[in-house]
Amino acid sequence: MGSSVAGPDCCGGFGNVDFRQVARWEQRTRKLSKVFRSPYLACYSLGAAILLLNVLRSHCFTQAMLSQPKMESLDNPTAYRVGLALLGIGSTFVLSSFFALGFTGTFLGDYFGILMEARVTTFPFNILDNPMYWGSTANYLGWAIMHASPTGLLLTVVVALIYMVAIQYEEPFTAQIYQQKASSSRKRS
C-alpha cells in the first residue's frame, strides 16, 4: 500500500482519541477555559478544530480511495445503491445526533462542565448507542462501496476501530458525570 493509504490516519484517524485526551486535561485543569475566559469559547474552539480535522480526514480518505484500484465485484449499480443507502442512513444518524446534542453536546462540552439537563435518550439514541460514531462509520462504508474501493473498505474498518477505542473512553465518563449531576440534584432537593 502506498503512502496515500496511510494519509487518513495522518489526517486525524486518532483525532477522536487525542481530542478526548485534550478534553480530559481540560476537565482536570480548566486551562483552556481560562485561556479563552469561557468554557463555551474553549469548547467551541476545540469543536472547530475537530470539525476542520474531520474535513481533512474525509478528504484524505477520498483521495486514498480514488488513488487505488477499484474492486470489480462492487463496481455495479446495485452496490452503488447500497452505498448510497448507507450514506443516507449514516447521515441521518450523524445529523439527528448533532441536533439532539447541540454543538457543545457533540463536541465534548461535558468535559468543559457544559452539561445537558439529562442524558439524551430520544432519537437516534433510542435506536443505538453512539449513533454519531456509527453513523459516521456508515458514511465511510457507503462512500467506499459507492466508489467500489477496497482501500475505502479497509480504511472504514480503521475508522470503526478508532471509534470503538473512543467509546471506551467516553461511555464511562458520560455515565459518571450524569450520575454525579443526578446525585447533586437529589441532594439539593
Question: Unreliable segments (pLDDT under 50, ≥5 consecutive)?
Answer: 1-14
Number of helices: 7
* Order of helical and strand elements: HHHHHHH
Shape: elongated
Using the CA coordinates, give the radius of gyration: 18 Å
Oligomeric form: single chain
Global mean pLDDT: 88
The tally of strands reads: 0
Distance between the termini: 61 Å
Helicity, as a percent range: over 70%
Largest β-sheet summary:
none
Q: Classify the secondary structure makeup into a structural class.
A: mainly alpha
Tell me the β content.
Answer: under 5%
Task: Describe this structure as you would to a colleague.
The protein is mostly helical and 189 residues long. It has helices spanning 3-13, 15-29, 31-36, 39-66, 77-106, 131-146, 150-188.
Summarize the structure.
This protein is mostly helical and 189 residues long. It is built from seven helices and no strands.
What would the keywords be for this entry?
7 helices; elongated; phospholipid biosynthesis; methyltransferase; transmembrane; lipid biosynthesis
SSE map:
Layout: H1 3-13, H2 15-29, H3 31-36, H4 39-66, H5 77-106, H6 131-146, H7 150-188
Helix pairs in contact: 1-4, 1-7, 4-7, 5-6, 6-7
EC number: 2.1.1.17, 2.1.1.71
Family: Belongs to the class VI-like SAM-binding methyltransferase superfamily. PEMT/PEM2 methyltransferase family.
Membrane topology: Multi-pass membrane protein
